[in-house]
Specification:
There is one protein chain. The chain is mostly helical and 238 residues long. The protein has 13 helices and 3 strands; from the N terminus they run ααβααββααααααααα. α8 packs across α9, α9 packs across α11 and α10 packs antiparallel against α11. The protein is rod-shaped and about 115 Å long. The termini are far apart.
Length: 238
């Protein structure tokens, strides 16, 4: 079935006039915009969080690790993004007003004009207006334990495929669910090479004619053994 829209990343039109974005020096704005767009590609609209690796951002933008680091620092200073270090990656949280279509962005924007992320990350307003799904819970559990993106995908891959497909239809963590389905298909299609001698031996033993020969041989050997035993006993009596 053809999708109504091609996959795309949504950026607010008024981003370039935003007071917080304008605090970023001109020579860093282009890099900050590239990094922000990458984060928006992976962000969960409900939790406002994502954790792509620097290698992923670098491959998408062509920016060096040091440039990505500096751009992230400026985004944090502008209160557009916050980050938390995990054992193997970084957890990014994006200010809700920079996510197009976020249901709580307008409420938070009215309550917190400073651009802070406090109401988004743990406030009661977010909990009341957003439904946390099973996918969200699993992602949060893995990230809280320090798991990276690959760990999240492998954990989601343990769910039934129908659950993941339903989540994709409901726009629930599309990227992670699609990667989990891909991992499931790769595991199902993974073949193991069996040595040729084992295969040939199994085929020979499973063949009906071979089984008949073995049965007749055992029957004959059994009769011969009984005959020899009887004759040996008879000779001893003499």
């Amino acid at each position: 079935m053809k999708q109504k829209y091609d996959p795309h990343i949504r950026v607010r039109f008024d981003l370039f006039d935003d007071p917080q974005f304008r605090t970023i020096p001109n020579k860093h704005k282009a890099h900050c915009l590239c990094v922000l767009i990458c984060l928006l590609k992976f962000v969960n609209n409900k939790t406002l969080q994502c954790y792509p690796r620097k290698a992923t951002i670098s491959s998408m933008t062509g920016l060096s690790y040091s440039t990505i680091y500096r751009a992230t620092i400026w985004l944090i200073r502008a209160k557009i993004v916050s980050k938390k270090r995990l054992p193997s990656t970084l957890l990014y949280t994006i200010n809700s007003k920079y996510i197009v279509g976020n249901r709580v962005s307008s409420h938070i924007d009215n309550r917190d004009r400073s651009g802070g992320l406090s109401d988004v990350s743990g406030g009661s307003l977010y909990n009341k207006t957003t439904t946390i799904t099973i996918i969200d819970k699993l992602i949060k559990e893995v990230s809280d334990k320090g798991g990276d993106q690959s760990k999240v995908i492998s954990t989601l891959a343990t769910l039934p495929a129908d659950t993941l497909k339903k989540a994709i239809k409901e726009n629930d963590n599309i990227f992670y669910c699609s990667q989990a389905i891909k991992e499931q298909s790769e595991k199902r299609g993974k073949l193991v090479d069996i040595p040729r001698n084992i295969v040939d031996n199994f085929r020979k033993k499973a063949h009906f004619g071979y089984q008949q020969v073995i049965h007749k041989r055992k029957d004959r050997d059994g009769r011969e053994a009984k005959t020899k035993d009887f004759l040996s006993k008879f000779n001893k009596k003499k």
